[in-house]
Every structure is written in structure tokens, then in C-alpha cells.
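Q: Got a minute? One more chain.
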Amino acid sequence: MTRWVREIYKRGGYVYATRAMEIAKGAGCPRIARLASNENPSPPSPAVVAAACEAVKGANRYPPENQWELLAALKALHPDEHLVVGAGMDGIIEAVIRTLVEPNEAVVIATPTFSFYGIAAGAQGARVVSCRRELDFSVSVPAFLSACRGAKLAFLCTPNNPTGNLTPPETVAEILEGMDGILFLDNAYVEFSDLDYRPLLRKYDNLVIGRTLSKIHALAGLRLGYALVPAWLDPFMERAMTPFAVSVVAAAAGAAALGEAERAKAYAAHVARWRDRFAREIRWKVHPSGANFVLVDVAPMTGTRAMERLAARCVLVRSCASFPDLEDHYLRVSIGDDWENELLIREINAL
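A: Always. Here it is, folded:
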């Protein structure tokens, strides 16, 4: 019966960072440093937990069509923007593809980057066009615009996952000026940088900016994302969204978390301090990053082998072997708690 399965799913799917955890558990680690998934190491605050617990009392009812409490909290941060909420950044990515892309139309992706863009586009029947970044992982504007010719939608991640590098707003503006289609700018990690791409929305009506509460606001387990969209696109994306995708619990927790600006600021400062320490103290090449992770080059070792050896020493990191157009001699290392980061430095330098 497998002949009925679509070819895209016969070839594979999203790659999870599960192998490292299996190795660490097999090694009998008493405590595991979880630095593989770019998670916020701190749990949600008591106020956020209280809001979620209160909301679960009404979980017998469907969520409201308009998540007014969550949208009000988002509007306080983005007062001039049109907003769409979804089940994590993944839900936002799927919705924008469903809204815009017909089968066999081209979707352009600047690689290496987050693999789900290609998976979601392929699932919609799109033709995925990869535009490989430069050796320093920057985006070549001429090459990207050439790839975008005739394409309705393109994806660009900044800070980029897994490389961590930033694409300057002026470069994004140059791309927007030169392309006919829509640019989805993934800003999942933008709060860990000093850049703000929102002013571009005032000038360009072919820009969508994706954001998430998974990272800076420590809500990865509740799957909550949103997009800043041009006014013309707003009603159509609302129609394309999966109905009731954002639960009442996630919405209540998200609204509470968005009100904790100082907590988010403290975490961003923690990330910046440890990024600097990683760059100074790790003996392998650490690439500059504007995210809550760094890319580490462990050549001549493969990233897969380095990941396995670190997992056996109770440190989970992400091998980058599964990222399109990225050689297998890189690790993506998240910023964790102090003790996790100290352990990482000691063990990676011992490889």
C-alpha cells in the first residue's frame, strides 16, 4: 500500500535531534546538557504558568476565532502592524505557502537554512529552488534575485538557522526592490540581535516577517508563532490558517509572556555574554552569530562524529549534516544554562 504515499514523504522528512539524546541516555549520564534545539533553558515564569493553568479550565470549548487577548499583547509590541497568529513558526510558514503557492510554482530558499521551508513547500506541490549562500553564509543579491525570477514566494532567514549570521536590512531592502514575488523573512531569532526589520514593512508590500514565542519567551512546548503581514494579505492568510490551531492555553501563556519584557531582555543579555565566551574559549572555529546558538566548525572531524562523542559525555548538540547545502563538519550549539555552557566548553575542547 505504500505506493499511495506521495514521493516527497518517501524521500524523508524533518530530521529531529534525537540521536544525541539516545547516546547520552545509553551512557548513563546523571545530568544532560541540552544544547541541540535552540531552546530557552529557563521554564516559563510563575505568572505565565498561572495564566496557562487558568486557561486550561476552559479547554472544553474551542478557542475564539479571534485570539483577542493574545493579539492585544502583540499589538502592544507591534502597534502599527497587521498580525496573524499560528501554531509556531511552522504553522505560519505552512499558512503563507497555502495562501500564495499553486502546485508546480517555484519557491526560492536561500540555503543552507531551516529545512522546513523546503518540506512545507514540497508538501504544497511547489517546485523548490535552492539558492546557495556565499562561503561566509551571506546572501548574494544578484544570485538570489536571479533565482527569484518568476517565483511567487521566497524564504530568507535572519539570523539564519543554523549558521547564525545576519542579513543587513539594507540587503533585504535591495532584494525586495528587485523581486516581483513575496519575501518571507524568518525572524525567529531576531530578539538576540540588534537589528530591526520592521521599518521595511512601511515601504514594501511584498514582505512578510515571521516571529515566534518559542525562543526569547520560553514557550517552545506550546507552539506559538505569528507574522507581521501587509494589509492586503491579512484577510487571505486568515482564511488559509488551520482553524483553531492556537489553543486557549498557548494563547493565555503567550499573552502573559509578552508582558515580561525585562525577563526577555535578561535572557538576551545572557545569550550575548555566552556567545562571546564561546567565541573566545572554544578552540574550534566559532562563526559570528546573532542568535541564541553558534555554528562551530569541527573539521577535519565530521559534525556527526563530534555530536556522538559529545553526547557520550552528556552534552547534546546538533550535527548539521541534515541541513541542505552544508557540509558535515559543523555543529550547531545552543546557549544553555551556565553549567551546561561550562560543560560544553570543557568537553568540546577535549575532542
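A: The chain is about 40% helix and 15% strand.
Q: Perfect, thanks.
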